[in-house]
Amino acid sequence: MFDNNLDTNWGIYPRPQLKRDSFFNLNGKWKLSVLKGTKEEFVGDITVPYPPESKLLCIERTLQRGEKYVYNRTFTLPDNFIKDEVILHFGAVDQITQVKINNQFVGENVGGYLPFEFNITGFLTCGENSITVTVTDDLNLELPYGKQRKNRGGMWYTPISGIWQTVWLESVPTKYISHLKIETKNNTVTVITKGGENEKTLILNGNNYSYSGDIFKLEIDSPIMWSPESPYLYGFKIISGKDTIESYFALRDITIEKINDRSYICLNGKPYFFNGVLDQGYFDDGIFTPNSPEVYKNDILSMKSMGFNMLRKHIKIEPEIFYYYCDKYGMIVFQDMVNSGKYNFWIDTALPTIGIKRLFTHRASKFRREHFEKTAKGTIEFLYNHPSVCYYTVFNEGWGQYDADKIYTMLKNLDTTRVWDATSGWFNKKLSDVTSEHVYFKPIKLKANPNRPLVLSEFGGYSYKIPEHSFNLKKTYGYRFFTDSDKFVEAMKKLYLQEVASAIEQGLCATVLTQLSDVEDETNGLFTYDREIQKIDPDTMQSISNAIYEKFNRQFE
Q1: Which residues on adjacent β-strands are paired with residue 199?
Q2: 177-249, superfamily in CATH?
Q3: Residue 455 near residue 437, CB atoms below 8 Å
Q4: At a CB cut-off of 8 Å and minimum separation 6, what does 222 contact?
Q5: CB 407 within 8 A of CB 429
Q6: Residue 163 contacts by C-beta under 8 Å, 6 or more apart in sequence?
Q7: How far apart are CA 309 and CA 326, in angstroms?
Q8: What backbone phi and psi angles, to 5 degrees, belong to 352?
Q9: pLDDT over threshold 50, residue 2
Q10: What percent of the chain has a predicted confidence (pLDDT) above 70?
Q11: Least enclosed by CB within 10 Å: which of 284, 375, 480, 512?
Q12: Chain centroid, CA 349 distance in Å
């Protein structure tokens, strides 16, 4: 590891599932310019990885149509850093990225949510080197864009552009492990590597296992299963010639089983109630990027203290450190794919909310299909090794929905170890692992489906606005409004102890409350947007959660 005196809270190693001792962080101070046509204008210093729109930079500048951001900085690598190859990593850059090293073009990436890398060995010189990152982001709706909107408001938020995750370098031998896939089933772990020497040694629990090739399989004696209540991780190391990596895995099984003539999602062979909240992944100071990775950990632990065991990561993919914290601290993740395509308020939201659920066919060009499916496949590969990720949502409320059965089948075949929710909320087609309902503005009344687990994938959305901790004093967005704390808490108790409890009798096995925190105009969070005020006492929410768990578990006694 090399400390290059970062002026940022993002000095943490960014890839805990494939960790080396080679790490040179390029976060910190960069020069930011705006390019329009052939004219380039210097804006000021920017602290990577915070996006230019964020308050953390004191720039708070929005990229205009026709403009590009140009990032520049220099770096000098320590003499003992370079082995054989040098790899340049980007956690995520929104939306189209071109990279130069020492004014030589290295490569391009399209898409704003997944990591990418370039081998820059042949572009480096001795001593000081320069890096230039040019970003185009017209918020192209043909590419996955999530909840960003130029005209933000309501449930649509301030867009970001440019670098919003860690930029870093590592140096590796010529033959190095480039990919790692971990499969666990029936107390057996299978480790699949790509690259490296043929002869390898895996070290686990103090034992050395030598093997040849890229696949190692081991049955675990006296297995310790992973769960939110006991998030046990097995750490291991692989030595492959001159290359050494560290990683971890967990033993956990997610299955769908039929019990008492109803279908349930089971964790480690037993019916489990997934009690979660919607997690948008937005922050009042950094928008897409929190001030520090500790904010992710605090969100996770705060929700656990309230009795929740699951976060639905909504229309956003986070840095890998978020999923590592979920693995480590025991928080299940229901992960959404990132939507693309145009949105229509009346067709996609208003009419379905009142019960008129006839899907208007969204146009999906060849370009949009290609990039949505590429991002979805990339998401599966990126998150495959994380035990906390137990469930995927493909399309949410019809946003950009097309060929749902075909996409479900394609993605399900890529990962059969998770539950797949093809159409969350409404506009159901033939194929899905679950019946997934959204209920707002009316009492929760659900019908049992004996062949699919019943999931309330969004509900609540009760707004209790605290003006001195609000983003927008003039506008308030939510689904039921309160001005008194006690009335808000009583309404939450009634929502769970009466409505959710009754739905459990119909086979309900998962709920997602809207939401973890306020987000801009939305004030329906359990926390304010700045995370400074918790609107319901954790012990109170914990007692509500415990009552729901007891109600659910009594069915199987």
Answers
A1: 212
A2: Immunoglobulins (2.60.40.10)
A3: yes
A4: none
A5: no
A6: 48, 49, 51, 71, 90, 93, 133, 135
A7: 10
A8: -60, -35
A9: no
A10: 98
A11: 480
A12: 23
According to CATH, the topology of domain 254-556 is TIM Barrel (3.20.20)
Mean pLDDT of 1-29: 84
Largest pairwise CA distance in the chain: 72
The rounded mean pLDDT for the chain is: 94
491 SS3 class: helix
Q: Which one, of 310, 255, 312, 265, lies nearest residue 449 by Cα? A: 265
User: Where is 76: in which H helix or E strand?
Assistant: strand 67-76
Quick one: pLDDT at residue 1? 46
Q: 114 with 375: CB under 8 angstroms? A: yes
> Are the beta carbons of 257 and 445 closer than 8 angstroms?
no
- Are 339 and 317 in contact, with CB atoms under 8 Å apart? no
Tokens at residue 486, please?
A: 């006690």
Q: Residue 412 CA to chain centroid, in angstroms?
A: 18
At 256-286, the pLDDT tens digits run: 999 989 999 999 999 999 999 999 999 999 9
DSSP category for residue 473: S
Secondary structure string (H, E, C) spanning 180-240: EEEEEECCEEEEEEEECCCEEEEEECCEEEEEECCEEEEECCCCCECECCECCCEEEEEEE
- Tell how many helices (H) and how many strands (E) occur in the chain: 9, 32
Task: Using CB atoms within 10 Å of the CB of residue 103, give its burial: 0 to 12 exposed, 13 to 18 middle, 19+ buried.
Answer: exposed
Helix (H, G, I), strand (E, B) or coil at 190: strand
| Average of per-residue pLDDT across 345-360 | 76
Percent of the chain with pLDDT over 90: 89
pLDDT at 449: 86
Residue 370 makes CB contacts below 8 A (sequence gap 6+) with none
Instruction: Encode burial over 169-201: b for 16+ CB neighbours within 10 A, e otherwise.
Output: bbbbbebbbeebebebeeeebebebeebeeebe
Name residue 418's amino acid. Answer: R
Task: Please state whether the predicted TM-score (pTM) of the whole model is above 0.85.
Answer: yes
Q: What is the pLDDT of residue 7?
A: 66
Alpha helices in 330-362 (DSSP H): 345, 351-353
Per-residue pLDDT at 12: 95
Q: What CATH class has 24-172?
A: mainly beta
Instruction: With a cut of 60, say whether residue 3 has pLDDT above it.
Output: no
Domains of the chain by residue range: 24-172, 177-249, 254-556
